């Protein structure tokens, strides 16, 4: 009977250590998931802001009277300055496939808008306005997918738009 006490102590220690390891592992997974979600949140916000800055810059160029090589250089420079290309590469690593595809669609529309302006279009051109409408739809879809990925509600009560 002298072996019962050490064996029960050893079993109790194993159960205690095992349960501590299980709890630590669960906490580590939860923290890892939270960090990844926060990282995607910041990346999504940065990418959305970058697309917005690109669109605003292109819109300003579309409303300017300038033409020729100066305008072309300005359009190209303003298109690149917000860092959309770099952020797209980060999205390709961290985001789910649906978000990657939607981000690519929105970016391509902005690139087509840039090319449209380089071809001589302005803010009143039909092609330019159609691209603007396409971008509105694409960015709405992208944001919906981003929100879904982050677990945000589909709509915020009392907020129809912004």
From TrEMBL:
<keyword id="KW-0472">Membrane</keyword>
<keyword id="KW-1133">Transmembrane helix</keyword>
<keyword id="KW-0812">Transmembrane</keyword>
<feature type="transmembrane region" description="Helical">
    <location>
        <begin position="6"/>
        <end position="23"/>
    </location>
</feature>
<protein>
    <recommendedName>
        <fullName>Protein kilB</fullName>
    </recommendedName>
</protein>
């Amino acid at each position: 009977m002298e072996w019962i006490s050490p064996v029960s102590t050893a079993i109790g220690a194993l159960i205690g250590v095992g349960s501590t390891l299980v709890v630590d592992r669960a906490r580590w997974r939860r923290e890892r998931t939270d960090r990844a979600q926060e990282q995607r949140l910041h990346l999504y916000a940065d990418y959305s802001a970058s697309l917005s800055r690109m669109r605003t810059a292109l819109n300003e160029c579309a409303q300017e009277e300038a033409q020729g090589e100066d305008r072309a250089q300005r359009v190209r420079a303003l298109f690149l300055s917000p860092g959309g290309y770099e952020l797209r590469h980060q999205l390709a690593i961290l985001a789910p496939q649906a978000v990657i595809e939607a981000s690519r669609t929105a970016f391509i529309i902005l690139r087509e808008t840039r090319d449209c302006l380089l071809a001589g279009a302005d803010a009143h051109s039909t092609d330019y306005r159609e691209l603007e409408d396409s971008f509105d739809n694409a960015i709405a879809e992208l944001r919906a997918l981003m929100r879904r990925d982050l677990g945000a509600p589909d709509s915020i009560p009392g907020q129809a738009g912004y």
